[in-house]
Amino acid sequence: MSPPTYQCGYCTSGQMMSAVAILRDPSISADDASVREAMSGNICRCVAYRNILAAIQSARAKMKEVPNA
Ligand code: FES
Question: What is the reported pTM?
Answer without folding.
Answer: 0.85
